[in-house]
Fold:
Amino acid sequence: MNILLVQPEYSQAKRTKHEAKLCPVGLFKHYFYHKHKGDIAIIITGNKQIDFKPDIIKITSLYTYWSDDVFRSIEFYSSLYPDSKIAVGGIFASLMPNEIKARYPFVEVFEGLDEEIEKTRVDWNKLNSSIQIIHASRSCVRHCDFCGVRKIEKKITFKKWEEIKKEVQKNEIVFFDNNFLMSPHHKEVLDGLAVHKINGKVIKCEFQSGFDPRLLTKEDAILLKKARAKSIRISWDHGLEQLPIIREALKHLQNAGFNSKNTGIFMIYNWDYPFEILETKRKVCFEWNVQIFDCRYRPLDQLYDNYNSRAKAQAEKDYYIHPSWTDAQVRQFRKNIRRQNIMIRFNFKTEKQMDEWINSKKKTATLINRKLCLEKQLALI
Structure:
């Protein structure tokens, strides 16, 4: 059979720089699944007319608020190939299947994970990718209201190191686990990564999601360092009652050799905790000299998000504003985070000093000096 695999071109993702952010892992698995069956499969990004007549068109999806891009792909390919079967899967399809079915009754909507596809081995060396994405586990043991993971990955599963070892093909690994530390095998996985080599070279790893601070131990921090983990993030999802746990997790990471340059805090805002609580959390992170990676909350069933960071003001019709928040607070918090991160990243002692640097025409030399200074002066938490 002829199989066309489509990743919509997400109009709001043009500034995404990290290769893993939009990597269509599911499509890759479908691609090799069909190749193993003897089908002819093609992967394409966006809406393009190509010299290929598919029997089946499979369209993936990401966030619900990028739904218009998915709809455009459905309409484009259904018009171009009216006799082809169309199936849609992915995050949006799993969270809001009825929305797609109501608009396009002729489309088959697939929810969750396909266990047969999940077992398919992706040959990353045949893909135009410098990284490899791996799941050491699926789903999560937590039940956070803002998260849709358990609706998409309903079954919690874990892999042992020997299973992952057979998958590893690249020297740059990005784990897409939602809660890596929940796995009873995570220590052996990190141990294995520390000594395993590909093409005679060591492996470096990264974790797309933040670590659960309630699970991160002193031993975990040491193992992460040995496994050459980079860009470590801890999730501070809840209120100030988590402060001692966050502090302890950061201490474990610092004592293991991670500094403020390669650690940070994931923080969700525009959610149940009001602006004042988030501001307190922000200021605490500044005292700890730790950068914040903020995530603006959008409901799991919202089909749009037209937030414009450059606008002076917007209304609820443009993007979701939590009842406990205002548009002005959303913008102020985002601004405060960015200013604070600059201060931490480049070791400014005061906001005045930072503003003078920002307004200066001589940024390049100053920037290099600040980086060197930051590397030499590791902050104590």
